[in-house]
Amino acid sequence: MKKILIGSILLIIVALGAAELRPYRLINADLGTASEIAGERVVELDGNVHFFYGETEFFSDRAKLFESSKRTVLEGNVLVLEDTLSLKANRVEYFRIEEMLQLRGDVFAKETHYDNTYSSFAADSVDYFRNDSILDAWSNVKVYDQREKANGICGKLHYELNNGYGYLLQRPSITVNDSLKISAEKIEYHQEFSKITANFDVVTESPDFTITSDFLLYFNLEQKAIFLGDPKFDSDFADAKAVEMHLYFENEELSKAELSEDCLVNFAIKEGEERSNWIKAKEMIFDFLDGEITFCEATGSVTSFYNQEKSKRRDYLVNKASAQKLKITFLDHEVDEIFLENDIDGVYKFIK
After folding, report:
1. What is the Cα–Cα distance from 95 to 118, expressed in whole angstroms?
2. Which residues sit opposite 323 in a β-bridge?
3. Residues 88, 58: contact at Cβ < 8 Å?
4. H helices then E strands: how many in the chain?
5. Is 15 a residue whose pLDDT tops 70?
6. Is 229 helix (H, G, I), strand (E, B) or coil?
7. For position 5, what pLDDT does the model report?
8. 3-state DSSP assignment of residue 332
9. CB atoms within 10 A of CB 331
10. Does 269 score more than 50 pLDDT?
11. Contact of 200 with 223, CB cutoff 8 Å
């Protein structure tokens, strides 16, 4: 009886498919019936449903195929396979004229890349527009990219499969390389997270520092970040601001920082102490090793103030100076030596 029912439904589907935009091809259903609802022929499939529309493959517990409205409703463990994209949900409604799928409830989308890595998206609701290969997700959205080691959350996501471009809205945040977290009003990503831009109220956090800015541009392959729009850097050892900041990373740790235009850095003699010392300059470069600062060079109309309190290892020293270049070396999380070069002028106070 089961085979007869499936065979009968197959004949009905083939007959309907002659006028369809995308022909049906039924693979399996435990039970099938055909009826007329409000003047429209409806095919109902139940149990281990498996069929094709063209090259797109559908699985579900139940399905209803509406002939006139060119609409299909699938419920229960729905799986849709199309080329490199797979879609899962509790319920899917497929509008064949518009070529749109509405996915609702525990939605999970996975896109496989050419190198066999993948991106995935999870949300309460997703709309997928087949002709344009665009995916819109909202409510409890989570996104992950295996190749770029990026994962994020937001309230709304827009993603274009053809060019790997997407953006996140509604309290979005993305973490890259398991160490750098970016939050902003809007976050855009290009070529599957190889480049990320963040706009408005940008907060960038790592275990060693926090940076606030209006704009961020991050290149994942080069491990480089550019901060614009009143960027401010803060760490346990120093805080800084400038017109523009460039940060470079190696092995997922900060290796170099470049500051340009109206640079101001307040720093402590030793990590954890008061940041009572400062440097102003046109350009500044900092080197880091294992996340710790090792060297600083400031150039262009440099002014500085250095106040060293007396301790067992250090004499009391106050130095307010100007020069064209200043260099500082650090050792064991402390200021080790300070060098001034070219047009030096200043006041030094020593007390033994």
Report:
1. 27
2. 302
3. no
4. 1, 26
5. no
6. coil
7. 47
8. coil
9. 9
10. yes
11. no
280-291 in b/e form (b: 16+ CB < 10 A) is bbbbbbbbbeee
Helix (H, G, I), strand (E, B) or coil at 3: helix
Using left for φ > 0, alpha for ψ between -120 and 50, and beta otherwise, residue 240 falls in beta
What pTM was computed for the model?
0.84
Taking only the tens place, the pLDDT of each residue in 271-327 is 667 788 899 999 999 999 887 889 999 999 899 887 765 555 555 556 678 888 989
CA atoms within 13 A on the CB side of 305: 7
Q: Which long-range contacts (CB under 8 A, 24 or more apart) does 240-243 make?
A: 240/264, 240/265, 240/266, 240/284, 242/284
Of 348, 337, 248, nearest to 305 by C-alpha is: 348
Tokens of 233: 């850097």
**Beta strand 224-228 with 210-219: parallel, antiparallel or unpaired?**
antiparallel
Q: What angle do CA 85, 86, 87 make, to 5 degrees?
A: 125
Distance CA 310, CA 194 (A): 49
What percentage of the chain reaches a pLDDT higher than 90? 62
CA distance linking residue 97 with residue 210, whole number of Å = 50
- Decide if 176 contacts 198 (C-beta within 8 A): no
Could you tell me the two tokens for 281? 């300059």
d(CA 185, CA 187): 7
Neighbours of 257 (CB within 10 A): 24
Which residue, chain included where needed, has tokens 């901060």?
227
Neighbours of 114 (CB within 10 A): 6
Question: What residues contact 344, with CB distance under 8 A and at least 6 apart?
Answer: 321, 322, 323
Q: pLDDT at residue 240 above 60?
A: yes
Instruction: Please report where in the chains the tokens 């020593």 appear, as a residue.
Output: 350
Strand partners, 244: 228, 260
Please tell me the distance from the alpha carbon of residue 121 to that of residue 339, in angstroms, as a whole number.
53
Per-residue pLDDT at 131 exceeds 70: yes
Query: Is the model's pLDDT at 140 over the cut of 90?
Result: yes
Q: Which amino acid does the sequence have at 351?
A: I
Average confidence score pLDDT of the chain: 87
The continuous run of DSSP H or E covering 11 comes out as helix 2-17
